Amino acid sequence: MPGLKGKDLRALSVDELEEKAESLRKELFQLRWEAKLAKLQNLSRLRHARRDLARVLTVCREMEQKKNG
Q1: What is d(CA 63, CA 17) in angstroms, rounded to the nearest whole number?
Q2: 23-60 pLDDT, tens per residue?
Q3: What is the rounded CA–CA span in Å between residue 69 and residue 65?
Q4: CA distances (Å), origin 21, targets 1, 11, 58
Q5: Residue 40: what pLDDT?
Q6: Contact criterion met (CB below 8 Å) for 58 and 4
Q7: Which CATH class, in words, describes the domain spanning 6-68?
Q8: Rounded distance, CA 21 to CA 53, Å?
């Protein structure tokens, strides 16, 4: 899922962001597993998944801080 934009993520609710984070964690786990088994041809997918997860978690954290003041 490369190419997640902060602008698009900020339009989602916290629950949707948490679901997206969970799916990205699963994808990242799968990509790491494939990399270990030498089945992953495109290693940049691993980097993109990691960065997308970081974006989702950052936006989620921003929303929580804004909500709490």
Answers
A1: 10
A2: 999 999 999 999 889 888 888 999 999 999 999 999 99
A3: 6
A4: 12, 15, 10
A5: 83
A6: no
A7: mainly alpha
A8: 6
